Structures are given as structure tokens and as C-alpha cells.
Amino acid sequence: MNSSPSSSDPGHRADTPLCRVSGESASVAVLLHPTGNGRRLRLVSERTGLSTLLDATVLEALCALTPSAATALVRAAVQRETPA
Question: What's the whole-model pTM score?
Fold first, then answer.
């Protein structure tokens, strides 16, 4: 059961599409998602349909990553998705 409010709900504020980021092996939609505690970025994988919300604290932490640390995070996530 989907517990999110329907788009016909007058109190519902819809996501605002910002952009689409894509490369050779991935495509992600970036949306602005309103919450009661401020706005978040909603990232949606166009391949898998998986999504996540990122707040300003998470985005700031990502900005502090070195290229090698960011690569390590991506490798770990890809390895989790790959069946053994």
C-alpha cells in the first residue's frame, strides 16, 4: 500500500524536476522534494527505480569526499548490487 499523499490532495506538494544526469551506464533523475523540515534532493535511478532523499548535511559531506573516497563508495554500492 502506498502511504504517500495523492496528487489530488490539496496539502500535497509535488516534487519539482530539476535535471537528469546520465552517462554510459546510468541515468538519474534529480528532483526537489518538499518536506516539513525543508527541501531535499530526491535522486531516482531510471534503470532500477530506486530512490533516495538527500538533505543539505549529506550533500555537504559528499562535497568533502576526495575523488578516491567517492570511487570507493560507488564501488561498494555496485558490489552490493552484484549477485555472488
Answer: 0.74
Residue 15 CB coordination number (10 Å): 17
| H or E stretch covering 56 | helix 56-63
CA dist 83 and 54 (Å) reads 27
Return all residues near 77 (Cβ < 8 A) that are at least 6 apart: none
Give the C-alpha separation, 62 to 67, whole Å: 10
For 30, which DSSP code?
Answer: E
The domains of the chain are located at 16-81
Q: 3-58: per-residue pLDDT in tens?
A: 344 444 555 689 999 999 999 989 999 999 999 999 999 999 999 999 999 999 99
